[in-house]
Write a structure and sequence with these properties.
With 327 residues, this protein is of the alpha+beta class. It is built from 10 helices and 17 strands. The longest helix is centred in the C-terminal third of the chain and has 17 residues.
Length: 327
């Protein structure tokens, strides 16, 4: 009997448009011989199943819905919500209470990886290198001269808990601080200021298969803009080259490091890790536990490069979910 899969989309962050695209790609490519997909929109308290342009409210007491007088439940959840409440672990806690499996990290792991500063600080205890960074809060005083002396220019100013490069700025001059901070604080009351690492940007996808970790082909990113910002990611202002044009030893180093991080943090599902390669040393930028799956996104490109169709990729992700649920 086919399993009912809820493909979650929406969310409460700036990334909602990316989520809608990701969910649609999953919905179009899921193996309907194995699974019955349902698009489930979650935005604030507005939860509903979208079916043939009709909206059917979700009963939050048991995550079910009714159609034509028949109550339907879900066997599992495919998470395609980027940002809160999907990527930060909020919904995972809810599904744990409902005893419904999902295809991504648990609540605790998601909350750690979504917090860039906390995640990188934790991984430094395991000798995982990342850029020097400072955290500041909107409600507290901070000394930009001290930060500049500590971090140096140029540097990057980012919302600490956001994705898709929303609110990210590169600061090369003192005059740029004000606008950079204003932009970042629009997306989070806590921001991270990172030292500039000069090198090649690469990104590495990891997924489980039959209990083993599979590193997808690495993607090299070259941006027409000053860095890999929103325009570069989603509006064609970049080249994403898969496999990356890097030496084999660098490829093996990045893939091995990605698997190590995956194990250290007890991650689950499809995960993408972004790095800067500087002098043959990969510096971790961030971890994406619910990576984009739109047509423009990197994980689908990497899967294609290794000869895996999107149907196969999504089936593997769902099957891992049920295997982990039984473990």
């Amino acid at each position: 009997m086919k399993k009912n899969i809820a493909i979650l989309r929406g969310g409460n962050s700036s990334e909602i448009d990316i989520s809608l695209k990701s969910a649609e790609v999953v919905y179009q490519h899921i193996d309907t011989k194995k699974f019955t997909p349902h698009l489930v929109h979650i935005e604030g308290s507005n939860w509903y199943v979208l079916q043939e342009n009709e909206k059917y409210p979700i009963d939050k007491n048991d995550f079910s819905f009714s159609i034509n007088g028949h109550r339907k439940t879900f066997d599992g959840v495919f998470m395609a919500i980027h940002g809160t409440p999907g990527e930060d672990g909020v919904l995972q806690g809810y599904f744990d209470l409902m005893n419904i499996p999902y295809n991504c990290c648990g609540s605790f792991e998601s909350s750690i990886t979504f917090n860039k500063a906390m995640c990188n600080a934790l991984l430094k205890q395991f000798q995982i290198p990342s850029a020097k960074a400072v955290i500041i809060n909107k409600e507290t005083d901070y000394d930009l001269d001290r930060i500049e002396n500590q971090i140096g220019l140029p540097c990057f100013v980012k919302p600490n808990r956001a994705g898709s490069s929303y609110g990210v700025s590169k600061v090369s001059d003192k005059k740029q601080w004000k606008e950079a901070l204003k932009s970042a604080f629009k997306h989070d009351h806590q921001i991270i200021i990172e030292a500039f690492v000069d090198g090649t940007e690469v990104t590495s996808g990891v997924i489980e298969k039959n209990g083993e970790l599979i590193a997808l082909p690495i993607t090299e990113i070259t941006s027409e803009n000053d860095f890999f910002d929103y325009e570069a990611k989603y509006e064609g202002k970049s080249q994403e080259i898969t496999p990356a044009r890097i030496p084999v030893e660098n490829r093996d180093q990045v893939q091995s490091l990605s698997k190590t991080i995956y194990r250290i943090l007890n991650l689950k599902g499809m995960v993408r890790m972004d790095y800067i390669l500087e002098n043959n040393q990969p510096f971790l930028i961030e971890i994406n536990t619910i990576p984009g799956l739109s047509e423009e996104s990197i994980i689908p490109q990497q899967a294609h490069c290794m000869g895996m169709s999107l149907k196969e990729l999504f089936s593997l992700s769902i099957e891992n979910m049920f295997a982990n649920d039984k473990a």
